[in-house]
Amino acid sequence: MPTSQPLPPKEKNLFNRILKCYEQKQYRNGLKFAKQILSNPKFSEHGETLAMKGLTLNCTGKKEEAYELVKRGLKNDLKSHVCWHVYGLLQRSDKKYDEAIKCYRNALRWDKDNLHILRDLSMLQVHMRDLEGYRETRYKLLQLKPGQRASWIGYAISNHLLKDYTVAFKVLEEFGKTQQSQDAPYELGELLLYQNNVLREAENYQEALNHLEENKSKIVDKQFWLETKADLLLSLGKETEAEKIITDLLYRNPENHRYYQQLEAVLKPENEEERLQVYESVARVFPKADSPQLLPLTFTTGEKFKQLVDKLMRHQLKRGVPPLYTSLKPLYKDPAKVKVIEGLMEGYIENLEKSSKFAESDTTDEPPTTLLWARFYMAQHFDALKQHEKALNIIEQSLEHTPTLIELHAMKAKILKHLGDTAGAMASMDEAQSLDTADRFINCKCASYMIRNGMISEAEETASKFTRENVSVEEYLREMQCMWYEIECATSYAKSGQYGNALKKCHEVDRHFTEIIEDQFDFHQYCMRKMTLRAYVKMLKLEDSLRSHSFYFQAARIAIQVYLHLHDEPYKAGGGVTNDQDATMSSAELKKLRNKQRRQERKKAAAEEKRKQEQEKSGKRSRQQQQKNQKNEDEADAKKDVEFDPEKLASVADPLEQATKFLVPLQLHCSKRFDTHLFAFQIAERRGKLLVMLRSLLRCDELADAGDRAELHVCKVRFAKKVRDANGVASAVSDVISQFMPKLFGDVEIENFNLKFLEESKKSLLHLFAGCRSMHHLDNGRKEQATDMLLRYDDGPDNIPTLQTCEAILDSLKQKEFGELAEATMLQIREKFRAWHPRACVFAAAPEPVEEEPVLNGIDEHSNETQESGDSAVKTSKPHRKSEVSDQKNNNNNHSAETSALIENHCSHGD
Amino acid sequence: MDGEEDPQLQDKKKKHDTESAADLERVTDYAEEKEINLRDVGDVLANLGQTVNAQQAARERELAQVKISKEDVELIMSEMEITKIKAERVLRENKGNVVQALVTLVNS
């Protein structure tokens, strides 16, 4: 040992006990031993002991003290591998991985064959995906310690990850020879399957098949063995043998759709009838299996389809299977099938109402629940076809008969949501929730509907029925990484202009992903020990593309949009509301909002206080238990991260940099999504990077669907204008741009390019609006013309714009897309939208002013109705006040009732 | 049921909480490595020479010889917002032609 401060035997012994205590997580005892050594004046500056004391303290959450001690220890004994190793471990626990690797390397300089250090180094390397370095370290470990399992496995994995399959296979083969199946049969089986995996990835199918056969008796996971064999036989074209295996598999589980695909691949049916026979033969053996009944619906047509779907629907309605619609949903891509289903279902309902039978010719009577489920299906059916009013009618009708069925209330809420009536939807979901407060699913749904209606504190209250006591809901859900909740909150905050809070939620989601990636660290060693290598390698691959998850995409979308907004209109501190909003808000409203905020804050403070008190109480009650939990708590403290501060987040100096941070993972993992490149364009536009704009534009162009074309057009025009207006562009850059211009625009001037687009967009408000925006962008003076075009939009029955389109347009007008608009114009536009979507809360006029508001001020209110509708919803949050909601709504809608009736007619005819 | 939950259910939940926490805790537990029969590792390892791709090395050498101008690298870095290493690489791959390099990047 190269340490400069050797200890005498007694102290040496104590020191070894510190090490042991650290390994076994007995931190208190470890500290005791450290104290024993350090209290001896001769060794009070002993480097290694100081370092170990620091490391142990770090595990009990005392980070600063730990750093101080470890650094002091290192200073006292720079030649000690222990001190360097400890410093590395400390840095690692602080997630400074690069620093940690450097420390390990220093430690190895003093003790180059130290197994502990090499092992820790290798784990960091695989964690950071330095695969070459990982292989090198594992090679060394294998040379030094061939007697250990982990040495072999680690070296094999490192080669596998580098796609060096031959070496990986040989190492595993050698290692396998030392393993006896009677010791740990499952582990050996896993090892063999992992080895087989390596062969298959190397596309050595024949060899893999032989290997599989040879080791059949040793492999415990029989199902996976069969599945692998079937895959291999199919890859090798041995269909007759494959058929036998697939049949075996179907006997094990007739509900696995993949087996059916494979069976079809083997049997190669030539037409619909033969294909159907495949499934019928399985159905004969397993008459109760759903899959052989359900899957043929996807490929049969005409009479045959009708016959099959008729049988299935009757059966499931009779049994009262609520998710029947979910099973049939994939068929809704085919309008002909939708028609058949609708016809059959209408027939059932008519007959069931008349005579409690599916068809008049039937002999048996159906129970009344059959009719109920048939209606429930019909409501889902019409909702899917966007005939929401019809769906709502059916649900109302069913609720009259069965007012206590949760599914009906939940469905009603969903339909109302689709109609834009967020307040009504919330009320219905709350009703559903109140019918079974022990149902967590419905509780979550209710919370989510409350957030959508802008009532986050109420949502917290609802969610609190299922969260742990003594912990605030927000904190608990964050700890549980409950991302849907955080994303809903972020959406709601962003909508109401509380950008700091929105960003806070987005960053929390982002942090969950970071945490998940960091959590893999513990498994590098664990999986090797437990021999769960297949799962381990799968996990590594999953972690590599973790941020392709849709939760990340949603959070990133909100964050990027908010940051772009903050770039355009920097946040001004004060009250959590931007000054921009203050300006458009009447003083009374502002007061109301401020009051509301203050109320919320007070409520929060009170809740916090209560929580603390409770904690103290329970603390006294169970001191003992607390002591037992001390260790866990210590660790929890150590892990607790700094909270994000909304105020700070909203007032960042470099919003575009921040937006880019969210964009990078999207570009890496979601490069096939239009929005990814749209965001890239929008960021580049603000940074004035023409070529990045061009690059993003080209990607957008490749990926855009019909709806995306609208936004794409706006981007194109903005790009062309920017190019035209740009000065001092490097010649290389303009060279590149001119190469691509014809591809994007043909030979037309931008103005004409836009005129042509406007001409083609008469039948879609979404595209028309894009054209108007472009026109206004090219010439600021044409805002009257732009709004005029919007107002003159031809609302034929087939061209009614969706709720989302209208909402987006209204939002963008409020964000001053066309600059300041006359209040009368805004009102007109909103009226027009309301005629199309009479139930939507966002377009509803504000309720009659209650406080000191003069009536004339009413117009002013319209310009920020989101706030208002939020307020009106507050008043009606309790379900028992539901009648009030509808009354109010009726009042609001009275003058547009005629129009809405007309629209409804259109809707139903249109479909 | 509302608000005040069934105490039994609560207990169960708590138990579940601590149990799963304990399971997680165990992942990082220290475990002694099991020894396996010592074998002659030298033989095995000798047969496992690591291959170096000769073709790739030749390509690298070829690229390193391409002359590139500092201004071009800087232009690419600033226009496409990429790192210096990446910018140089693209420029080399396009034989030092800055327009061609930019077109490649725009198309990528």
| Helix count from the secondary structure assignment of chain B | 6
What fraction of residues of chain B sit in β-strands? under 5%
What's the total count of β strands of chain A? 0
- Indicate the overall shape of chain B: elongated
The major β-sheet of chain B equals: none
* Global Rg of chain B: 30 Å
SSE ordering of chain B: HHHHHH
Which structural category fits the helices and strands of chain B?
Answer: mainly alpha
- Average pLDDT of chain B works out at 74
**What overall geometry of chain A do the principal axes of the alpha carbons give?**
globular
Instruction: Give me the count of strands of chain B.
Output: 0
In helices, the fraction of residues of chain B equals: 55-70%
Oligomer: heterodimer
- H/I helix tally of chain A: 50
What characterizes the major β-sheet of chain A? none
Alpha-beta content class of chain A: mainly alpha
- Which two chains have the most extensive interface, and how many residues on each? A-B, 45 and 40 residues
Structure explained in plain terms:
Chain B: Residues 66-106 form the Nascent polypeptide-associated complex subunit alpha-like UBA domain. The complex is a heterodimer of chains A (911) and B (108). With 911 residues, chain A is mainly alpha-helical. Among the domains of chain A are: 503-519 and 544-583 and 642-665, no CATH class; 666-910, no CATH class. Chain A is built from 50 helices and no strands. The model of chain A is unreliable at 575-586, 621-639 and 848-911 (pLDDT under 50). Chain B is 64% helix and 0% strand. Chain B has 6 helices and no strands. In chain B, helix 4 (70-80) packs across helix 5 and helix 5 packs across helix 6 (98-107). At the A-B interface, helix 8, helix 9, helix 10, helix 30 and helix 39 of A face helix 1, helix 2, helix 4 and helix 6 of B.
